Amino acid sequence: MSLPNGKKPVGCEWVFTIKHNADGMIERYKARLVAKGFTQTYGIDYQETFAPVAKMNSIRAILSCVANLGWPLQQLDVKNAFFHGDLEEEVYMDVPPGFSSQSTVGKVCRLKKALYGLKQSLRAWFGRFLKAMLGFGYQQNNVDHTLFVKRNVHKVTVLIVYVHDIVVTGNDEEEVTHLKMQLANEFEIKELGPLRYFLGIEVARSDKGIFISQRKYILDLLEETGMLGCKPADSPIETNHHLCSGIGEPVEKERYQRLVGRLIYLSHTRPNIAYAVGIVSQFMHDPRATHLDAVYRILRYLKSAPGKGILFSNHGHLRLEAFTNADCAGSIDDRRSTSGYCAFVGGNLVTWHGKKQAVVSRSSAEAEYRAVAHGTYELIWLQSLLSNIGLDWSGPMTLYCDNKAAISIAHNPIQHDRTKHIESDRHFIKEKLNKSVTCMPFVKSEDQLADVFTKDLSSKVFHPICCKLGMRNIFAPI
Asked: Which of 1, 213, 333, 427 has its CA 20 to 30 A from that of 299?
């Protein structure tokens, strides 16, 4: 049959999967009708596809607040989430396999609800969920659009959603109970109890705090790569590694990219491998044997302590602090510097970053100053996130730097010759200092925690920094 406006029906197929519990045991077998979204045409049967998903930085910041404030932490799951999304476009689909008969010859299905596999499914689902949450009286956070907050005098309820996984916390028990009832009336909700497993991250809570790790993920990765029996390494990357492009025998690109991609996801709970993963991810376009050896070195390090993760403890405050550092001209290929920072909320590590700078810095002070700008941006973002929840921090946010030249430039507006290449950063940082939004005390190099995100440290320096970052291994024998 002919369809209007040149539309073509989307293909479909049945997909059979097995869903596992957090311990790896089989929970149930699933069969799902999935549309072949790759046959859709932009502008005809779909328009925009973007929909926000929760940021891991937001999730860790909330976990730190929960640990410091003693709030409960509960998890919900929306069953068949994409089926709740309302389609705005006209989308036609072939008759599903198994339903073909004489009466269906030459006919197609018109979809009114979203279906798994359609390009706009996630956007349609989030639009429906957003409409429901606003109807419940919640406000959408402007910093992270997947975060919803409802405040009532001194009580607050917080919900964060990642596709169909929902985490609810707050100090208003009545509102949490009421929210569950409202969600159950609107969608098909499954209560999973206290948060234990979220996006492949294992969560354990005790009187010492909240611990997150990816132990099962690491063990599965080691088994997949055949490295369960390998000799462990004491650090994720060799000191003075001198990795660069184009040297060594080429290796299979797809396999290398798949391994590095899995390590990137693993760095959500393992900041101690962030620098090493950042180095090996620079050679995705042309991996060589030396680069693959560096990836295996990371895996060997993970073998030494697969259960290590981050502990969010109760420190009795919600201060915002950050450490920034830069490795000047550290890249052999283009002599660009590596910026790094790590930020703490309530004494717990919640965000970190290590990345090559976009341009070549002409001095160590310039490289450090660019890192200071990134750290300042992150502190302001965290302040906005907590402020929208109702957890304001009145004092200045502390940004620690071990470069006296960078600190001097930040406080002295006269040094034009030294700052003409970073003029916008200088004015931005100076403005925050003048308004007492931030302060920049000097920290000794041996106490600089951001070193682990910018340099290949020896194990003697590396392990104490990891301990100060709040990394623990609760699976290690006492």
From this structure: 333
